[in-house]
Amino acid sequence: RNKTPIVVGGTGLYLRALWQDGFHDLPKSSELRETLKDLNTDELRQKLDQLDPERSKEIHGNDRFRLQRAVEIASLLGHSIKDLPPPSSKRTESFVIYLQIDRKTLSARIAQRSQIMLDQGLIDEVKHLLTQGISEKAKPMQSIGYHEVIQYINQVYKKEDLIEKITIATRQYAKRQETLFRKIPKDFIWNQDSSLDDLIQVAKDHLGLNR
Q1: Global confidence as pTM
Q2: Cβ count within 10 A of residue 55
Q3: How far is 12 from 28, CA to CA, in rounded Å?
Q4: Which segments of the chain have a pLDDT < 70?
Q5: N or C: the chain end with fewer CB closer than 10 Å?
Q6: Residue 122 belongs to a domain with what CATH number?
């Protein structure tokens, strides 16, 4: 209590959860949800493109859970979720440092990460989970890396294509995160040209330590 917390990492959703005073009470329909379960991922995407194209751009192609929920919400609302008034925010009480990396370096790190995931046994891990009765349609199994390995196991992808498929999916996810963070006001952007002294000065100004 009465301390200044430092929050590191996380997605834009986590930041919004910290800043917002609650979330919208969005509509639900178990009947509609059962109907949507019969649609495949491509069909859900097509529906969402029609109902709420802006929301559709924010959801990864493999994320069936969010696609289905977004279609359900848009169908029940009768309009885009973006048309709802935003909850009140405590953003002005925060000091945001955004870590910015050039696209070439980021792309190389993503490719390296994809290779490490496979080197550390991702394929065997996915096979083990499937033998334990975990459905390949389960939400965690649709996450980046797991989804691509399942496609390989089902002979949709060749093994030599796995690194490229995982890398592409991760780059697409990173691009969506960059798009989201562009909408968030930042107090300091840290990049290869940044100075620690400059950051400290800006932070002190924000905290009122230079007054």
Answers
A1: 0.66
A2: 19
A3: 24
A4: 20-24, 87-91, 210-211
A5: N
A6: 1.10.287.890
Per the domain annotation, does 131 fall within a domain?
A: yes
Token output for 9: 């990492």
- Integer distance in angstroms from the first to the last C-alpha of the chain? 24
In a domain, 173, yes or no: yes
Specify the number of domains making up the chain.
1
> How high is the pLDDT of residue 191?
86
| Nearest-angstrom CA–CA distance, 144 and 147 | 6
203-211, long-range: CB < 8 A, 24+ apart:
203/95, 206/95, 207/4, 207/95
| Maximum distance among all Cα pairs of the chain, rounded to whole angstroms | 65
What local confidence, expressed as pLDDT, does residue 202 receive? 86
Assigned domain for 25 exists: no
Q: How is residue 162 written in tokens? A: 């796995």
Q: Is residue 85 part of a domain?
A: no
Q: Say if residues 62 and 32 touch (Cβ distance below 8 Å).
A: no
Task: Using the structure block, give the residue that is written with the tokens 């490229």.
Answer: 164
17-47 residue pLDDT tens: 777 655 667 889 999 999 998 898 889 999 9
